[in-house]
Amino acid sequence: MKLYINYLNLDMLPIIMNSLKEYYISSKTYVNIYSVDGLYEINNSTTNKLIPLDNNIIIMNNYYKDFCIIADPSYFNMEPTNQINPNNISTKMKKCFFQINKKSVIKLIIEGEIIDNNSSDLNINPYDIYFELPNDTNVHDPLVKEEIIVFLSLLN
After folding, report:
1. pTM of the model
2. How many CB atoms lie within 10 A of CB 26?
3. What class, spelled out in words, does domain 2-155 have in CATH?
4. How remote is the C-alpha of 85 from its chain's centroid?
5. What is the pLDDT of residues 75-127, one digit of tens each?
6. Is-contact 106 144, C-beta < 8 A?
């Protein structure tokens, strides 16, 4: 499940990334391909077609202070493929993962286009930020909420 922060100024993402450096744990590089036939992802030399499975979102107003959180349990199934329509657009992307501790199931993810392949892990043009956690997680559980609030307080 993804948790989005509603009304967050995405222009602030580069500044937010700098404030989260101590929580950075890893990153994942991949290529997004957009074609008339659908969305594809190349990851570790594997090409998959992404099949969206949409679910209803849940809006949680005032989850913490003035933060409104949108829970989206939608996801993509990956179907291995060997063919992609030649009329496509590709973008080299990176997801940067942040956690309070390495045993946590809650990850804050900042995703964006890679600016320079030869520079640091955090050198991306960020365009998305969200929390990722297992679909069966109770986001109102006090321990889960506490971890999310730690990140939200850094964004405040």
Report:
1. 0.88
2. 12
3. mainly beta
4. 26
5. 999 999 999 999 999 999 999 999 998 889 999 999 999 987 655 656 788 88
6. yes
